[in-house]
Prior knowledge:
Blueprint: H1 6-13, H2 40-46, E1 50-55, E2 74-77, H3 89-92, E3 103-106, E4 109-112, H4 117-131, E5 137-142, H5 154-157, H6 181-210, E6 218-222, E7 252-256
Parallel strand pairs: 1-2, 1-5
Antiparallel strand pairs: 2-3, 3-4, 6-7
Helix pairs in contact: 4-6
Amino acid sequence: MKPVYLILLIILFQVYFPLRTGVRDTYNGGATMASSEITIAEMLKEAGYTTGNFGKWHLGDNFPSRPNDQGFDESLIHLSGGMGQVGDFTTWFQGDSSYFNPVLWHNGKMEKYNGYCTDIFAGQAIQFIENNRQKPFFCYLAFNAPHTPLQVPDKYYRQYQNIDPAKGFENDDRPFPQMTEKDKEDARKVYAMVSCIDENIGKLFKKLDDLKIADNTLVIFMTDNGPQQFRYVAGMRGRKGSVFSRWCPGSVLFKLSYKI
Length: 260
């Protein structure tokens, strides 16, 4: 089994050995799930849930493997494995601004959106939750950030532009790779992109509280693969593409509030 994040996606939507689904890699035709597979969205939809997918899908860009073909009532995605990649042809030609004002795919049709991708996906997911607050819903919000290309709004980058990401760990005796100047600049951008995600997750939680449905909503927060660049990772081994990059401790967090 290759150390690629698609294995995590398959396990998220399935419950058995992922290669049985037809997915074997992230590109060259290896990232299309067999249409015969039953996803968690299809199962929940059959149970009366309204289902929505916002952000990354990467299990098939064409019929019959798109989100709307695989159990999602509402879908807003980019194509391929990431925005700015060749396969996501509507953002590929935007070059170093592919994360801004993108053309995305809403229920299988191209639509132009204004703003930064993380804000767009979170905003549409929050709207979906608000629209379906009075009935069971399943919302799958999969941010493409902080995937490369490392593009981020200035207001988040400015929070980190003057820090040295390699300093502050002198008393930590765990392994820490030597960081080049490019590694440091990449880390600043990654931290900025994560701050944007944090802010949007905060907005989502606030919406659940405002709608008074937080006590009846299960939130599962999951991470993707390890970092693509060298930076501080608390002594953990490897990077993206390494066999060590999967299933980091604490990579799945559950939040459930309820009243008896």
